[in-house]
Amino acid sequence: MTSPPKTAAKTTSEKPTARKPPSGKRAQRASAAGAAKSPQKPGQGSPKPARASARKAAPKTSVAQAPQAVDAPPVQQASVLACYEALVRAHPDAHCELDHKNPFQLIVATALSAQSTDVQVNKVTPGLFKAYPTPQALGSASQEQVEALINRLGMFRQKAKNLIGMAQALVRDHGGQVPPDLAALVKLPGVGRKTANVVLGVAFAAPVGVVVDTHVQRITQRLHWTRHQDPIKIEQDLMRLLPQSEWDRVSHTLIFHGRRVCFARRPACSTCPVNERCASAFVAETVGRKPARVR
Ligand code: SF4
Question: Which residue has the least CA distance to atom 2 on ligand 1?
Fold first, then answer.
């Protein structure tokens, strides 16, 4: 898990060379350049209309359908691989942080993680798994019983309904087993492409895509590995840039980097191990971030 990608291009020493932040006129030029390079569109300062129009404009893509090729990422593959190797070395312990012991527990935990942190999910799953250790048990539970166990999470009513429906579908259609198949997984209630990719990559070591969450979305934009904001298109870029053997690890690595270094607000560019390779270093504050909510 900790070795660098086999098919990635070999690089010389990737020691984290701390780059100093620009100052004075250089900072102004860097800021202007960053704004010019940023994939954000004008008008993102007024978030709701911009997001609404982006959603309307985006073509609909089936969650199980491999996204079609889009315009190429703005960086060369060799450069991405070298940068990725450095990130792997910086986060050799990157892994799925949802506690689980089998594919059933993982699919439940991942479905619960929508709009919730892994830490929050890990607090409710021990009680849930103890009460309902199998798809048969969970499929027989009442809505109220499951809600009572997960009500610390957002959208707990919908999540409880989906979990029961998913467990019933596993029993009815898959003999009580989690199927190692993307098309079958995304038919389960509450399971989308992201959850299916987590299950296939982590539980079965057979990724057929890349998990794109908010960290992966933000960091790939900052590194210029993609020029897109749509997770499906970002996933397509990553699948073209990295070998399939890395499709699972790349998301964990970027998620760890996002939690430890490349924060949404105030990324720690001065200590980042890839600041020499990052197109957004020291000017990343506004790149790849969700627009602030208007209340
Ligand atoms: S924006 Fe800063 S912290 Fe994030 S990857 Fe680039 S240099 Fe590193």
Answer: 269
Specify the amino acid at residue 132. Y
In angstroms, the Cα distances linking 21 to 11, 36, 64, 86, 261 are: 25, 18, 43, 20, 15
Tell whether 221 and 76 lie within a shared domain: yes
3 state SS of 67: coil
Where residue 282 falls (left for φ over 0; alpha for ψ -120 to 50; beta otherwise) is left
Ligand 1 centroid from CA 289, angstroms: 13
For 259-282, the pLDDT digits (tens) are 999 999 999 999 999 999 999 999
Domain boundary among 179, 207, 235: 207
- pLDDT at site 162: 98
In the chain, the number of structural domains is 2
- Answer whether 0.90 is exceeded by the pTM: no
Asked if 290 and 280 touch (Cβ cutoff 8 Å), the reply is no
Looking at ligand 1, which residue's alpha carbon is closest to its atom 4?
262
Is the distance from CB of 244 to CB of 266 less than 8 angstroms?
no
Substitution candidate for ligand 1 out of 222, 224, 276 with most atoms within 8 A of CB: 222
